[in-house]
Write a structure and sequence with these properties.
Helix content is 45%, strand content 11%. The chain is an alpha/beta fold and 350 residues long. Helix 7 links the parallel strand 6 and strand 7. Helix 1 runs antiparallel to helix 12, helix 3 packs parallel to helix 5 and helix 5 packs parallel to helix 6. The structure holds flavin mononucleotide.
Length: 350
């Protein structure tokens, strides 16, 4: 069973991915936040820096592309191939209004015919493996069956499914029952994404998915094409892992200490101080990360308010010192509010 880091724009930068990989049980793949092909160049400066092999040494990184323009996709994929990448991921799940109104991200799921034509062009023209990250549809989870029919026509390397529709954003429970039905019906390798906040959440979906695969194996469903482990290929935690970076290590039975968490923090902090100029953008970046990380501590609300108020580097460092001196790594009882998402207001400088 594999585990991948979900892309979170503004959070899972190369600085974050490296620090995570160095201090916790390494993940099998790290997906970059989405790259939007620009009209004149396949990668913007910030995007190029994020995927630069020099900044991702030894990391299994999968760049993600967000577009509905096949030529733009192919051009960006070619630029990524020149950097040494062998797989790219297509974002078909972003629920943001500015993205979906242009027919991209989850907006593309509204039009399976256009999606089919797009997939035909990119699978024809791209030498790299292409994986997909999708939702179940736009408004009704049952839309997934038409989407499945389209997706099953193409040699998709993996299908990462967030089992909600766009209109649900991140609210409510995920439709795990439908994820399991898709697992029964699709010919592709599937990865589960959504609301994995505790080791028990991971255990539960894995148990259910593996039971489905075992049943399929008994019926000789795979017929030598794919193994059970490849059909349900694993999980992709997002917000739960950012809030509690020890989550996957803990699931794998590893003990994580507070000093490990501190070293992880320090590597990210130093990394941003190296590439951002001045204290303000660094503090801003770190505060954004702490919006998630405070959730892993008992005094989360109090810390949240204090982070919110502070602006000076010395205050930031003092608060972080206090947290790492007084706190323990906790993995229990993290229950995020429904639809839990930290809005990202800044124009990301990295
Ligand atoms: C702030 C934020 C930024 C995100 N950025 C991306 C992105 O760039 N690409 C993407 O495919 N998904 C993005 N997502 C969605 C996550 O990858 C993931 O699918 C979602 O958070 C659900 O998983 P979770 O419940 O484990 O967090 C983002 C989510 C959030 C909250």
């Amino acid at each position: 069973m594999r585990a991948y880091l979900a892309p979170l724009e503004g959070i899972t930068t190369h600085v974050y991915r490296n620090a995570y990989h160095h201090h916790f049980r390494p993940l099998d793949k790290y997906f970059t936040p989405f790259i939007v092909p620009a009209s004149k160049r396949p990668l913007r400066t910030r995007e190029r820096r994020d995927v630069d092999p020099e900044n991702n040494k030894g990391l299994p990184v999968i760049p993600q592309i967000l577009t509905n323009d096949a030529a733009g996709f192919l051009e960006t994929a070619e630029a990524l191939e020149a950097l040494g990448y062998t797989e790219v991921n297509l974002n078909l799940g972003c629920p943001s209004g500015t993205v979906t109104s242009r027919g991209k991200g989850a907006g593309f799921l509204k039009d399976p015919y256009a999606l089919d034509a797009f997939l035909e062009q990119i699978f024809d023209g791209c030498r790299l493996k292409i994986s997909l990250k999708t939702r179940l549809g736009w408004a009704d989870p049952e839309e997934v069956w038409e989407i499945l029919n389209v997706i099953d026509r193409y040699p998709v390397s993996e299908w990462i499914l967030h089992p909600r529709v766009r209109q649900e954003f991140y609210r409510g429970e995920t439709h795990r029952d439908i994820f399991l039905e898709v697992l029964k019906k699709s010919r592709h390798s599937l990865i589960y994404n959504g609301n994995l906040f505790t080791a028990e959440d991971i255990r539960q979906i894995c148990g259910e998915a593996e039971a489905v695969c075992a049943g399929m194996q008994e019926q000789d469903h795979f017929a030598g094409v794919m193994s059970c482990q490849d059909h349900f290929a694993g999980v992709m935690p997002g917000r739960g892992l950012i809030a509690q970076p020890a989550l996957w290590s803990h699931y794998c039975g590893e003990n994580v200490t507070i000093s490990q968490l501190k070293d992880f923090h320090d590597e990210i902090y130093d990394g941003y101080r190296e590439i951002l100029s001045g204290d303000d953008p660094v503090i801003h970046k770190m505060k954004e990360l702490w919006c998630y990380m405070v959730q892993g501590f008992t005094e989360s609300e109090r810390y949240e308010k204090r982070f919110h108020k502070l602006h000076r580097r010395s205050d930031y460092e003092a608060l972080v010192r206090e947290i790492f001196t007084n706190e323990e790594v906790s993995l229990a009882g993290f229950v995020p509010p429904d639809g839990w998402q930290i809005p990202s207001k800044e124009k990301h400088s990295i």
